[in-house]
Amino acid sequence: MGRPTLSESLDALLPRCRRGEEEAFVEVYSLIGSSLYGTAVRLLGRPEEAEEVVQETIILLNEKAAAIRSGNLRAWLHRVTVNQCLDRLK
User: Fold this and answer.
1) What is the spatial distance between Cα 58 and Cα 72, in angstroms, rounded to a whole number?
2) How far is CA 87 from the centre of its chain?
3) Which CB contacts under 8 angstroms, 24+ apart, belong to 78-86?
4) Burial letters for 48-82: b for 16+ Cβ neighbours within 10 Å, e otherwise?
5) Which of 16, 45, 72, 88 is 20 to 30 A from 60 via CA?
6) Which residues of the chain have pLDDT under 50?
7) Number of H helices, E strands in the chain
């Protein structure tokens, strides 16, 4: 069996996020933070604001982890990032 995909790695962290394990959020950030940041920079055009959006996304993960379906964390994180950017652009 090969290495787990990014989605599989993130989904493996979801139960730990649901328990509020701080290290799990750090691991999520290390796995996907740069991708979320890239999305935010492309949408906002402002690196400082993009970093704030990524931080807010991880905070929302902490608050909403129980409601996220397994197999969906990667998509959820990207959707929240895009929505946060769109809110800022209004």
Assistant:
1) 15
2) 17
3) 78/35, 78/36, 78/39, 81/36, 81/39, 81/40, 81/53, 81/54, 81/57, 82/39, 82/43, 84/40, 84/53, 84/56, 84/57, 85/39, 85/40, 85/43, 85/44, 85/50, 85/53, 86/43
4) ebbeebbebbbebbeeebeebeeeebbebbeebbb
5) 45
6) none
7) 4, 0
**Between the CA of residue 32 and those of 1, 37, 77, what are the distances in Å?**
23, 9, 9
Q: What b/e string do you get for 29-44 counting C-beta neighbours within 10 Å, with b at 16 or more?
A: bebbbeebbebbbebb
On whether the pTM is more than 0.85, the answer is: yes
pLDDT computed for residue 40 by the predictor: 98
